[in-house]
Amino acid sequence: MSPDAPSLLQRPVAALDSARAAAEAAATAAGVRIETPRDLSALVAATEVWRRIWTPDGTPLISTEMLRALTHVGNYLSVARRGDGVVGALLGFFGGNGRVDLLHSHILGVDPAARGGGVAYALKLHQRAWALERGISRVTWTYDPLVRRNGHLNLSKLGARGVDYLVAFYGAMPDAINNGDDSDRVLVEWDLAAAAAGRTAPVHDVESLLRRGAAVVLHASPGQAPALQENGDADILLCATPADIVALRHDDPACARQWRACVRAVMVAGMERGMTLSGMARGGWYVLSRCAL
Fold first, then answer.
1. What are the C-alpha distances in Å from 160 to residues 119, 170, 174, 277, 279?
2. What sections of 134-252 are H helices per DSSP?
3. Which of 117, 32, 121, 109 is closest to 77 using CA atoms?
4. Which of 216, 219, 223, 230 is a good FRET partner for 236, with 20 to 30 A between their CA atoms?
5. pLDDT, tens digit, for every residue of 205-256?
6. pTM of this prediction?
7. What is the dihedral sign for C-alpha 250, 254, 258, 264?
């Protein structure tokens, strides 16, 4: 090892310092304060954020009692405060299956009035620093691959990778966002030290990937319906997404179901071939590949 090479002890410290600085910068840019509360009023505020998003006319997705139990034993909860109000909340809990270095991030929600301002990104970067402080090296979570903005956040901005496709993971979900659609989810895995060191997925453009031999396996027809194409044995696949699946579920449920079936077919087939969801190209195109691009 050269004298200038960081030791194994120094590397996690450097990653943690970088993660803390990035989290503070993201919160400042979003105009919020990220806190890890334990008082009951903040727990109620977190459940109310999620309720406003998913069940505006019903009960919260997670009760205050359950949130109290989860946080009491040390699991992760953060809220984003703007002024006197809570505009976002993120919950995670420690994973099992023999993995002592794993945090599973369960639910992230940002109040509709505060979306688009970097609040979700700030919450995730706070979660990354919190996890690294505790020796946790990886965070997993699931998300709906039809929600394009979440794919961009998870894969392009955060640098997570899609490692599995879970069909109807939660069963039927008749809430305001999912509107009875099948609850297919992509499981993503986030290498925290790598992400803190800046090793995230580049934002590709479709033209450059096509020049590298990528194959378009799903695109939108002129009427915005999904259209599958054969891909042969290409090592890079491009999969389109609907512009706004939440609106489509309300306006054209049949078309929304077609998108679900087509994206499912592409993702399942690709991952069975050993591919991962490695990024999202400009225009809402998922990139599946056999290796890092």
1. 18, 21, 28, 9, 8
2. 148-151, 192-196, 206-211, 245-251
3. 109
4. 223
5. 899 999 999 999 999 998 889 999 987 789 999 999 999 998 998 899 999 9
6. 0.90
7. positive
